[in-house]
Predict the structure.
Amino acid sequence: MRPVYFFWLLFSIAFYWMLYLYEDFLMDLLIAGLLCVTVFWLKEFFDRHMSNLLSSLLCVLALLSCLVIPVYFLVYKSADFIFHLNLERVSFFMEKFKADLLVRLESFPALSEYAHKILANISAHSIMSYVLQFSSDIGKYSLKFASDTVMVLVFLFLCFFLRANFLPIYSRSFAL
C-alpha cells in the first residue's frame, strides 16, 4: 500500500470518529452560526456604541428574549394548565358533548349507529391519560431542548465575540 492511500485511510477513520464524538455539538454550532449570520447587522450596530464583549452579550440577550423566553413561557403555562385541570368539569363537558352529538346525529341512522360505537370509547379519563402521556413526553425531551438551547447561546456568543479574529481572513478572501 502506498503511503498516500494509508494517510487518506487514516484521515478518513479519524474524521469519522471526530464526527461521531462531536455530533451533539455540531448541530448546535451550525444553528449558532446561522443565527450569527442572520443578526450580524444588530451586532455591527451595537459595536458602534460599545465594546465587543458588551455588544456580543447584548446580542445574545436580545435573541434570548425574542426567541427562547417565549417558548419557555408557553411550556410553563401549558404545564400549569394541565396540572390544574379539574377532571370532574372535563368529564361533565365530555358527557354533555357526547349526548348533544348523539341527539344531533339521530336524524342520520347510518351515522348514529357508528357514533354510538365510537363515542363509547371516548371518556374524560382516556383523554386525560393521553394528555398526561403527551406531557410526560414533552418533559422527557425538555431537558435536551434546554441543554441544546444553552449550547447554541454559548456558541452564538463565541461567534459574535470572536468574529474579529476571522475578519481579516474574510476580507482577504473576497478582496476585489
Remarks:
- Helices lie at 3-38, 40-47, 52-83, 87-104, 109-120, 124-161, 163-173.
- The first helix runs from residue 3 to 38.
- Residues 25-173 form one domain.
- Confidence is low (pLDDT under 50) at residues 171-176.
